[in-house]
């Protein structure tokens, strides 16, 4: 059977390659699916550094065309302030670029696609004026809620600017959801929030998958006793907040009880506060690593102590796939749906998080059994092939509704 969408325009905030952080894990695999079913794909995205530009060059080896202007995050933050004058959310001018606007306009006029697939609501501004092709927005989660969470935990200035962004961006998300043919989110929790805030649109749930062939443990030979691991981009505020909170509220107690304990903080772009942890009290901050499975295999427990989070956390899925027992907050775990209690430890306060790590360290056999159940759970529920089938069904239904 011929895939019905042969000509695809794919837009995302970041270069959709390689799959080395949350949004890129999703976009890279979605793009791979469109390639595997034979689509001709044109890609629009942004590069922030030399590594991104090299990744964009790799995309050009198979994409029909790639438009990837380079942006400087510091300058873009200044550019985003135009939103205060125009009354729009600051996110839109941050991701607005003349080169990409011109290129997408040319694609839409000269060779209209069958499908426009966008990842993140800010990319909707590039195709709002072109209603003819099928337009699908992968929200993942509502970004407006992230800003609302930031506002709730900030001082007066933060409450004002983050609160404004939450309100303005939600209004824009509502407009996009109502105008586009389909809206996608990553979990039932996100669907519930979406339907509460945009009640006249019912989004389709398409969770992230796990590349289980990659995230499979090599065994226990490199396992280091009493070692916890956290993975994630370390200039991203929810990750920074979670690691600093765990390091202050939980780690000293664990380190006192287990003097040789190690805490591995694995991820690109550690900010100054995270870098300051390196070498202190058994904490190692790696910075960029080529691949994370070797670090999972050094640990005995993975943690996800996120206090600012929505959506489906890839760090949790990957650790589970590696056969590690995971201790996660409710916010970090909620996107997984219903997980058996003996497969994932959920704890929100420092005392309970510390107690769960302590329990798993004291009972190595139970820790390994929990990890094995976690790996089996991921392989049953979160294979990418299952997610691609859901995606194709959602696209077919959106096209049928359009007809």
Question: Can you put this structure into words, describing what you see?
Answer:
This protein is of the alpha/beta class. The chain folds into two domains: 7-209 and 383-402, Glycogen Phosphorylase B (Rossmann fold, 3-Layer(aba) Sandwich), CATH 3.40.50.2000; 227-381, Rossmann fold, CATH 3.40.50. The protein has 18 helices and 13 strands. The protein has helices spanning 22-36, 50-59, 73-80, 82-86, 91-94, 98-110, 143-152, 156-179, 188-197, 237-249, 251-257, 272-275, 293-296, 314-321, 330-333, 350-362, 364-381, 384-402, and strands spanning 7-12, 40-44, 65-67, 115-119, 134-140, 182-185, 204-205, 227-231, 262-266, 283-285, 301-304, 326-328, 345-346. Strand 11, helix 14 (314-321) and strand 12 form a beta-alpha-beta unit. The longest helix is centred in the middle third of the chain and has 24 residues, at 156-179. It is globular and about 65 Å long. The two termini are 20 Å apart. The model has no long low-confidence stretch (mean pLDDT 95).
